[in-house]
Specification:
Number of strands: 20
Largest sheet: 7 strands, antiparallel
CATH topology of the largest domain: Beta-Lactamase
Number of helices: 10
Structural class: alpha+beta
Order of helices and strands: EEEEHEEHEHHEEEHEHEEHEEEHEHHEEE
Helix content: 25-40%
Mean pLDDT: 81
Number of domains: 3
Low-confidence stretches: 144-151, 262-272
CATH class of the largest domain: Alpha Beta
CATH superfamily of the largest domain: GAF domain
Shape: elongated
Radius of gyration: 26 Å
CATH architecture of the largest domain: 2-Layer Sandwich
């Protein structure tokens, strides 16, 4: 064979739809668009078997097929002559294809319905360039006009710079900011977010973001919802190119399924971050088999993340996960040695830019805090906040320690992996966003103060 499928990796990203040509035994041809052609090995590709019943029926009668692909980098067309060998319903290739489809389906309310039935494996008999699609001139890109922007985004120097930033971080907040800032500065990723596992099983909470007008700190994601939830559920990286086109395809299938009564119209899951992301990359943050959280990177460019980045992305996720876990453990140990808090300090000055009084309502049953009728936070951070404001009102003190919160049985913190430091960081950032006159200010390792620029009216409701 003279062709090399490995060099055609960009053709297998699903950015530009492929065309599948089949023919029945009685000579009737059929043409169908494919959302994705998967690289299998040096001499095989896999096609998704979902809704193309006519194509699949033709293949069972006549195993010969033809697929036309377009390289999204150069615009060069390729014709692959195929011969069907088998269908797989398990294995690494099937799992990878199914995970990508489920991630797209979850955006459209079709998770569990819009499913991959099988990965049809074909031998590639020949691969030839199509004469009518000759592609961009040498050294240029069909999409961007310049090959320089298509160089691999992950370099050893960039990884070394990121590692240096991580080593210099002295707190969890500084670490998270350093990671996202380095992704932008050294890798060119302008939109990113880190979500950590929440108090409740199957839940992620946004702890740090970069590049979004509304930082979204405190936003929650459930396992299995969108790319973030799918990454957490499968504990595997997911890379999607040309997401908008895939979404339109999914919405069309959703409409047809609804007409046939297969699914009902449910509330569509909102896209995280960018309103119209074209490329998304989700990486699980794993330490051994323990899921710490998810790193998600987005871009408005249709083909931002290349095939050669896959192994480096997984390595990056592991390194970031270890750094986050080590920092949380370090802060926990240091907080245990913090001195007891002071009892009383002078009141903070009021600010003319903020209301003189705020109404804080804690809903005990929902573990939710509302400030002036607007949602602030829920779950463990809400319980912590209510503990702080009520203690301050009763005792008149403003300083607290992480250690006393850990020893407080009313907060129901787990004995291990309570993630208290990350929850305090989340609470502090939500206050900065919603109520800047109510501040949690670090004072020393394991110590912080609750500073008020207004009076608080506290109410607890069922």
């Amino acid at each position: 064979m003279t062709f090399c499928l490995e060099r055609m990796a960009s053709c297998f990203q699903g950015l530009i739809p492929a065309t599948l040509y089949t023919c029945s035994n009685d000579g009737v041809p059929n043409v169908a668009y494919l959302s994705h052609v998967e690289y299998y090995d040096a001499t095989h590709v896999a096609l998704s078997f979902q809704f193309f019943n006519k194509s699949h029926q033709n293949i069972l009668e006549n195993p010969n097929a033809l697929v036309r692909l377009v390289d999204p980098d150069t615009g060069q067309g390729w014709t692959l002559r195929l011969r069907y060998e088998r269908s797989e319903t398990s294995g690494p290739v099937f799992d990878s294809m199914a995970l990508r489809i489920e991630a797209i389906a979850s955006y459209c309310g079709l998770k569990g319905i819009f499913k991959l039935l099988a990965a049809d494996v074909y031998e590639v008999v020949s691969a030839e360039k199509t004469l009518e699609e000759t592609g961009a001139p040498e050294g240029t890109s069909w999409i961007t006009g310049s090959r320089t922007s298509l160089d691999p985004v992950f370099t050893m120097r960039a990884l070394q710079s990121l590692a240096q930033r991580i080593h210099q971080a002295d707190s969890l907040e500084c670490l998270l900011e350093s990671i996202l800032a380095a992704l932008e500065e050294f890798f060119g990723f302008n939109h990113s977010m880190i979500l950590l596992t929440g108090r409740n099983e199957g839940e992620l909470v946004t702890i740090a973001t970069r590049g979004y007008p509304n930082n979204g700190v405190g936003a929650e994601a459930r396992f299995g919802e969108g790319i973030v939830g799918m990454v957490a559920e499968a504990r595997k990286p997911i890379r999607i190119s040309g997401l908008i086109r895939a979404m339109l395809y999914g919405q069309a299938i959703r409409a047809r399924a609804t007409e046939q009564g297969v699914t009902s119209l449910q509330h569509r899951i909102a896209l995280p971050g960018l309103a119209q992301p074209e490329s998304q990359l989700g990486v699980p943050l794993l330490v051994r088999s323990d899921l710490i959280g998810v790193l998600c990177i987005e871009s408005e460019s249709p083909y931002r993340f290349h095939e050669e980045d896959r192994s480096t992305v997984e390595l990056l996720g592991s390194y970031v996960a270890i750094a986050i876990q080590n920092m949380m453990l370090k802060e926990r140990v240091e907080a245990a040695d913090a001195p007891p808090p002071t009892r009383q300090t002078n009141p903070e000055p009021r600010s003319a830019n903020h209301p003189a009084k705020r109404e804080v309502v804690y809903y005990r049953g929902d573990e939710c805090v509302m400030v002036d009728g607007e949602y602030l936070i829920r779950s463990l951070p809400a319980n912590i906040f209510w503990k702080l404001v009520t203690t301050r009102a009763a005792e008149g003190r403003m300083e607290f320690t992480n250690r006393e919160l850990r020893l407080d049985k009313s907060l129901n913190l787990p004995e291990w992996k309570d993630n208290l430091e990350s929850r305090l960081l989340l609470l502090r950032r939500r206050l900065e966003q919603k109520c800047p006159d109510i501040r949690i200010v670090p004072r020393a390792r394991g110590r912080f103060a609750l500073e008020l620029g207004c009076e608080l009216s506290l109410q607890e409701r069922p």
